[in-house]
Specification:
With 104 residues, the protein is α+β, with helices and mostly antiparallel strands. The chain has 1 helix and 6 strands, in the order αββββββ. This is DUF2469 domain-containing protein. Pfam families: DUF2469.
Length: 104
């Protein structure tokens, strides 16, 4: 497989992922971003934890989530638990955020 073939394949996978996202975003209430993944979910619990030496980390649990990851064969996940020392962003989607531009 040439570099050009690989690039074309990845571009097609990204387009397919975007289309899937567009189809499912209206089903979810929250967007959760971590340093490694982007999730859509209706149930999210974010807990701030501390270690014995004073470091702070985040524990995020989600149920029935959709994961933005073009390399996963199944993007719907029943339960997710993320533990990270990096930033976590949780946003509640407004209904107007669900309106995607139409393809022409």
């Amino acid at each position: 497989m040439s570099a050009e073939d690989l690039e074309k394949y990845e571009t097609e996978m990204e387009l397919q992922l975007y289309r899937e996202y567009r189809d499912v975003v209206g089903l979810f209430t929250y967007v959760v971003e971590t340093e490694r993944r982007f999730y859509l979910t209706n149930s999210v619990d974010l807990q701030v934890r501390g270690t014995d030496n004073g470091e702070v980390y985040f524990e995020v649990t989600m149920q029935d989530a959709w994961v933005w990851d073009m390399y996963r064969p199944a993007r719907f996940v029943k339960n997710v638990r993320v533990v990270t020392f990096k930033d976590v962003n949780v946003e509640e989607l407004a209904k107007s955020d669900f309106e995607m531009p139409s393809e022409q």
